[in-house]
From TrEMBL:
Subcellular location: Membrane
Keyword Zinc: no
Protein name listed in UniProt: Uncharacterized protein
Chief site of localization: membrane
Keyword Glycoprotein appears in the UniProt entry: no
UniProtKB keywords: Membrane, Transmembrane, Transmembrane helix
Membrane topology classification: Multi-pass membrane protein
Transmembrane region(s): 12-39, 46-65, 77-101, 113-135, 155-179, 199-216, 236-255
PANTHER family from the UniProt entry: DOMAIN PROTEIN, PUTATIVE (AFU_ORTHOLOGUE AFUA_3G01030)-RELATED, PROTEIN RTA1-RELATED
Pfam family, one: RTA1
UniProt feature coiled coil, ranges: none
Assigned GO CC terms: membrane
Length: 282
């Protein structure tokens, strides 16, 4: 029978015996989902999605570490791997979401409709995401011992709050662009090309899933190491694993790969420039 064993003295890393079945299931699911994203990425040569693939691989390794921890609850390495990798992987998913928006905007020649200059859009949000990633990873590394647990939890909370703020600003930016772009549906490029709106819907859905997961993590760490959420395994799988697997599936299904600036004839360029959708070509 599996037994919950202390890491050092009377300090326990785990507050429950991790389920090998649940860990194995999500290891397989994330592996399949990530493989689908890799296939789409290679097919479309959409190398900017490499960061998303890395996030998927972190999920695979993280849940694999949980799957083998049933009889290793006293070992530090499997615990650190699963807690850190599962915690930071969504930040890499978010980075791909940020990069996708800029490519969608360029694909319909609507740079002037973005409230943030497109040349800076990806840089601003991805840099914020990197800060969130580094802070969360640092916190996860700090909280592995009883003496530094509270400090580590506070560091992780800081990283999660940064992620939520960045995501909120991104959502506002995306929504403003979307509203402005819909006003110019009479232009030929936007009227006949509906792909961009399907991709915008994809970005909204995965953004909501990542946001809900981030809020769950904030509440989890606010409640602390002995709180209900950290002390019960099912909450991780319902509010993190399941939601992030949904992100991978949706991203693979509605993949933002074939995003190239729309080709327009001279008449369409003049029409759209008059409407204010794009700046004159240099």
């Amino acid at each position: 029978m599996p037994e919950l064993r202390p890491y050092r003295g009377d300090y326990y890393l785990w507050l429950y015996i991790p389920s090998p079945a649940a860990g194995g299931l999500f290891t397989a699911l994330f592996a399949l989902g990530t493989a689908a994203v890799v296939w789409r990425m290679v097919k479309c040569r959409a190398w900017f999605c490499t960061v998303f693939v890395i996030g998927g691989l972190l999920e695979v390794v993280g849940y694999a570490a949980r799957a083998v921890s049933e009889n290793r609850t006293e070992q530090l390495m499997p615990y650190v791997i699963q807690s850190t990798f599962i915690l930071v992987a969504p930040a890499l998913f978010a980075a791909s979401v940020y990069m996708s928006l800029g490519r969608i905007i360029r694909s319909i020649n609507a740079e002037s409709l973005s409230v943030v200059p497109v040349r800076w859009l990806t840089t601003i949000f991805v840099c914020g995401d990197i800060v969130s990633f580094v802070v969360q990873a640092s916190g996860a590394g700090v909280m592995v011992t009883a003496d530094s647990m509270e400090m580590g939890e506070n560091i992780i909370l800081g990283g999660l709050f940064v992620q939520i703020i960045i995501f909120g600003l991104f959502a506002v930016t995306a929504a403003i662009f979307h509203v402005r772009a819909r006003r110019y549906r009479m232009s030929a490029v936007l009227e006949h090309d509906t792909q961009w709106e399907k991709l915008m819907t994809m970005l909204y859905v995965v953004s909501v899933l990542i946001m809900v997961r981030s809020v769950f993590r904030v509440v989890e760490y606010i409640m602390g190491h002995d709180g209900y959420l950290l002390a019960h395994e099912w909450t991780l799988y319902v509010f993190d694993a399941l939601l992030m697997f949904g992100v991978v599936v949706i991203f693979a299904w509605r993949f933002p790969g074939n995003l190239r600036p729309a080709k327009m004839d001279a008449e369409e360029i003049v029409q759209i420039q008059q409407e204010g959708v794009v700046a004159p070509e240099k």
